[in-house]
Amino acid sequence: MESRYVISVIQMEKAIRTPKESLEALKGVLGAKRVAKMKKEAVECPIKGGTISFIECFSCPNFIRRVKGAVHCRGDPL
């Protein structure tokens, strides 16, 4: 898979608002502690044009992988 963007993950002090659909997708897959930690992470999304929660990025169809604090994104229009 070809990644068009490599975006660094930003650590936030407080959790960012996350859409309910994105959280529901992770229930049962990841533990509560991991989800709580992911809520405090954000990325500068080139597709949506702003800072979004990493959980929202993780549930996006453009998400490929996360390696060493960097997210690989396909960059296709949504």
List the helices and strands and how they pair.
Blueprint lengths: L4 E4 L1 E2 L8 H7 L5 H8 L1 E5 L4 E4 H5 L4 E5 L2 E4 L5
Antiparallel strand pairs: 1-6, 2-3, 3-4, 5-6
Mind describing the biggest β-sheet? Answer: 3 strands, antiparallel
From the spread of the alpha carbons, the general shape counts as globular
Termini gap = 17 Å
Rounded Rg: 12 Å
How much strand?
25-35%
Q: Helical element count?
A: 3
- Uncertain segments: none
Order of strands across the biggest sheet? 1-6-5
Helix content: 25-40%
Mean pLDDT: 91
- What's the count of strands? 6
Instruction: Spell the H/E element sequence.
Output: EEHHEEHEE
Number of domains: 1
How does the helix and strand content classify structurally? alpha+beta
Q: What would you say this structure looks like, in words?
A:
It is a single chain. The protein is of the alpha+beta class. It has one domain. The chain is 26% helix and 31% strand. The radius of gyration is 12 Å and the shape is globular. The mean pLDDT is 91.
Report a brief summary of the structure.
With 78 residues, the protein is an alpha+beta fold.
Task: Output the keywords.
alpha+beta, 3-stranded antiparallel beta sheet, 3 helices, single chain, 78 residues
